[in-house]
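Encode chain A's predicted structure.
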Amino acid sequence: MSFGTGHHQTTHMMIQHLLNEDLSNLKVLDMGSGTGVLGILAQMRGAIEVDAIDIDTWCYENAIENVERNKADKVNVILGGAEQLAGRMYDFIIANINRNILLQDIPVYGESLKSGGTILFSGFYTDDLDLIKEACNKVGIQYDSHMVKDNW
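Encoded structure for chain A:
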């Protein structure tokens, strides 16, 4: 099974959170999109536009296929990394990526988040939460809460 099917703890928690969000009329970023499942769900939750970005070619191709199969016409699949965010702004950011990439790219996410927007981070162990919070504080991203499943 692919990462991003909803079976991994981090993807499962993101899905749980997104199911409680009203994304109506919001522009959403699904960073590290993998199969595109979170971006597709974001559209189902009302997002008017979703950019699903991943650095892996296989993930990119798989996400395109999944977007087509689910008729997710508001999901734009993009091959690349945080460099793709230049000049783009989002109301809601989903980033389910490993700790080191999150720490590296948090400043870019901060620049791409509209005032009053929301970011969901996942893909790291609970032991790394303080590092993530510290990096967020440096760029003005405020911590609200977190979920835990099996030390993720």
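The chain has five helices and five strands.
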